[in-house]
Amino acid sequence: MSSKNLLVISQITDDQKNVIKKMGINVFGIDDLDVQVSKNEINILYGWNKKIGLDIINADHSSLEWIHAISAGVDSIPMDILSKRNIKLTNASGIHAESISQSVIAFILHFVRGIDNAESNRLNKNWITNENTQPAIISDFDYLIFGTGHIGQQIARLLKSLGGHTTGVNTSGHPAEYFDKTVSIKNVSNQLIHADVIINVMPLTDSTLHYFNYDRFASAKEIFLFINVGRGPVVESKGLIKAINDGTIKHAALDVFEEEPLKSDSPFWTLPNTIITPHNTGVVRHFKNKQMRIFLPNLEQYLKDGTFKSNQVNLNSGY
């Protein structure tokens, strides 16, 4: 059997490249395309770039068999085309769970423990200790987490360790580890009226696009904190902005947005009581090493029998 050709779109280290080469794989970079290797000779893509990826998929007599996305979300990849061409897809679901969940806990503590008020008082040189600014603790609140996969479970685990009560929301209401209970997304209305903190970690699919809109927020009780670390377009921007401005959402922590990067004149920058991070809650040191813990075992298995040990994406559901 001839050697497979792998195109690296997302950077890897030289040591990682050498490990892959020792498995009998020819490793190429973007600059090698149409110089050392033709687009139609690429068998495996490591990472995703829309233009490059589509050029390879649509090349005459394309040999592409497998794409490994370095993110958990794969909504930017045309799964309908992959399905028609019998191209397999894996993702990095799971490697971001620890870093994102810790960021979520940091967001919660920032507002629950009154760190936002302390920072405001510092900037204004105010020493305020009256009861109106007395902070709460995590166990004072109920948490509704949309998405019960790796990230949702890790968030629930950390909240549970701090006394938080968690309800998870997924497609069927099936049980998930660390949650006090779970409900199906079709039956979530009754939970919204009890939730103090709503956390979105849902993937972007046809059914979750703009799931969170102003009417959804308004149907909940006053939301102490809304956190979005899922996919930006799951939340309708106009509805979110309105809900924060009119107090339906008291505080917000937003890592993902419908349009990224945010423009300098975006209204998000000036929203009250809002934390904004640039889609980086999943970033962590040694990220490339964590990626390889998924990719290398999958590559080894794929070379044996064309299957994967983990993280294969269902092209119909999108996750």
Short description:
GO terms for molecular function: NAD binding; oxidoreductase activity, acting on the CH-OH group of donors, NAD or NADP as acceptor. This protein is an alpha/beta fold and 319 residues long.
Explain the overall architecture.
By secondary structure, the protein is of the alpha/beta class. The protein has helices at residues 14-22, 50-57, 79-85, 97-112, 115-123, 150-161, 189-192, 214-219, 237-245, 287-305, and strands at 5-8, 26-29, 44-46, 66-68, 88-90, 142-146, 165-170, 181-184, 197-200, 225-228, 252-254, 274-276. It has two domains: 5-94 and 286-305, Rossmann fold, CATH 3.40.50.720; 97-276, Rossmann fold (3-Layer(aba) Sandwich), CATH 3.40.50.720. Helices cover 31% and strands 14% of the residues. The chain has a seven-stranded parallel β-sheet, covered by helices on one side. Strands 2-1-3-4-5 form a five-stranded parallel β-sheet, covered by helices on one side. The protein is elongated. The two termini are 31 Å apart. The mean pLDDT is 96.
Notable characteristics:
Rossmann fold; alpha/beta; 319 residues; 7-stranded parallel beta sheet; 10 helices; 2 domains; elongated; 12 strands
How are the SSEs placed, and which strands pair?
Blueprint: E1 5-8, H1 14-22, E2 26-29, E3 44-46, H2 50-57, E4 66-68, H3 79-85, E5 88-90, H4 97-112, H5 115-123, E6 142-146, H6 150-161, E7 165-170, E8 181-184, H7 189-192, E9 197-200, H8 214-219, E10 225-228, H9 237-245, E11 252-254, E12 274-276, H10 287-305
Parallel strand pairs: 1-2, 1-3, 3-4, 4-5, 6-7, 6-9, 7-8, 9-10, 10-11, 11-12
Protein name: D-3-phosphoglycerate dehydrogenase
Organism: Paucilactobacillus suebicus DSM 5007 = KCTC 3549
Domain D-isomer specific 2-hydroxyacid dehydrogenase NAD-binding: 105-280
